[in-house]
Amino acid sequence: MRRSFKIAVILFLFSTSGLWAQQLASPYAVSFIPKSVLIDTLNPSSILSNRAVERRSKQGIELSKTDVPIQRTYLSKIKSIVSHKGPASKWLNMLYVEATPEELVQLMSLDFVESIIPIRGGMSQQEIIELPYGYSESQTKQISLHSLHVHSDNGYDEIVALGEGMLIAVLDAGFVGANSITISDQLKTTTTRNFVEGGTNVYQGSSHGFSVLSTMASYQPEVFIGTAPQASYALIKTEKELSETPEEMFNWIAGAEFADSIGADIINSSLGYSTFDDPADDYTVADLNGRTSIISLGAVAAARTGMLVVTSAGNAGGSSWDKITFPADADSILTVGSVTQYGMASNFSSRGYTVDGRVKPNVSARGEGAVVYRSDGTLAYANGTSFSSPIVAGAAACLWSTVPNATAQEVIKALEISASHYYQHNPRIGYGIPNLDFARQYLSAVVDGELPEIVVYPNPFPDYITLFLPDGESLPIHLELRDLYQRTVATATLESKRYKALWAPGETIAAGTYFLYIERGGRMQVLRVTKLL
């Protein structure tokens, strides 16, 4: 694409006012791992008075682990971290603390801490303990990635999906700032390669790649946390900043082949092409079939190696070109469009579909007002599918790391099915904004071979329930919600549903725990669900 579609469209709208917020300490109960003590070895008089021992003896009550005090080393370590340490309960094996979000991150890294429970009226003990995202909170929550970052099957309190173990190759125009600005104390850059000037120096020319990288790799609690801060990164320069020639597409293919050779799991490419310095080299909109552009053929070849190729849709929306740019038309890759903070399609985001009718972009994420790092170390609001693409690429790394046996194509399908407009896809946002928590449930079901089961999301739920249906058969779904006394509180029949269905019983029932009975195709399934306040 021309420079107007590449670097110039990145609008940095930085403001120093109103962005920083003080992080206040909130009350929590820190739950410790089970006490490792043999009851038979306990000396009652060493932990209880004679009178207390006598009272228990009269009633036939024996000593238990709940009588054993919490280790002082645990309490001392936590005191050095939190804003305030309160009393401990040996019975509950818990300690009262008041901690900031940043302090919570440190607490959750302690091997003797089992969980952290908020103490506040109206809060569920399964509330998600979130990372202190800072400025990136909105763009992270828009795709529900925060639920993966802290998800645990036994209480939503364990950080398990920050992209650890995944290698992401970033193909871009240069990474000025990446070797001088600290965006993470643990940034894992495994290798660099320059396919424009040659060699390994990628820290020259453009800083565009650094801003792209920051949306994924940043880890500055309370300031900015990217979508995959524990992933490893390969920085690959393929784009010339001051010209636009077909050779750059071959640079891209060479970069993708290099990514394959080093074992990259994911490629993120915030580059796109359509017109060149020499008009004789230009493509036309009619070429958007995934089989004409040389770079699109290269992208398909990359996808066939098992890598997940993620690319920006382009910033040509509203221009004379208007459509997605190459290689965004390629089959088997994940093309990402841009939306605003309100989930509306950005005016500049390139439109689909392909000329042969395939849905592109596949999904969309924050690309308008996305928070990124600049090469001078400041944070900025930036516009462009250049940033929605890596936001999704990092999220995909987290998703894939939770289900490592999945294939790249299964990851793409999970993101599509989870998206907000799966049934109402359109040329502006494709299938819509992905929901990473829902995508994780679907992907787990696919890999575990449990597709006959219907996945319910979210649980706990507010007013609505989304049901993922495991096949494309158009069948009615009979739903019945019963309370703990097996009294029916809500029923519905949803006719002719395929893949996904929505039910909203929450407006008429009270908060609490229920049993959801689901009958579809002669098969009954019962799930325990919780209605939120």
Describe what you observe in this structure.
With 533 residues, the protein is α/β, with parallel strands linked by helices. It has two domains: 3-19 and 160-447, 3-Layer(aba) Sandwich (Rossmann fold); 455-531, Immunoglobulin-like (Sandwich). It is built from twelve helices and 22 strands. The longest helix has 18 residues, at 385-402. The relative contact order is 0.10.
Could you name the key traits of this structure?
seven-stranded parallel sheet; 533 residues; alpha/beta; 22 strands; single chain; four-stranded antiparallel sheet
Percentage of residues assigned to helices: 10-25%
Spatial strand sequence of the major β-sheet: 6-9-5-10-11-12-13
**CATH homologous superfamily name of the largest domain?**
Peptidase S8/S53 domain
Class by SSE composition: alpha/beta
CATH fold naming of the largest domain: Rossmann fold
Please compute the radius of gyration using only Cα atoms: 26 Å
Number of helices: 12
Task: Describe the secondary structure blueprint for this structure.
Layout: E1 26-32, H1 44-47, H2 50-58, H3 72-79, E2 84-89, E3 94-99, H4 101-108, E4 113-118, H5 137-141, H6 146-149, E5 167-172, E6 188-194, H7 208-217, E7 219-220, E8 224-225, E9 232-237, H8 247-261, E10 266-269, H9 294-304, E11 308-312, E12 334-339, E13 363-366, E14 370-373, E15 379-382, H10 385-402, H11 408-418, H12 436-447, E16 455-457, E17 465-468, E18 475-482, E19 488-497, E20 500-503, E21 512-520, E22 523-531
Parallel strand pairs: 5-9, 5-10, 6-9, 10-11, 11-12, 12-13
Antiparallel strand pairs: 1-3, 1-4, 2-3, 7-8, 14-15, 16-17, 17-20, 18-19, 18-21, 21-22
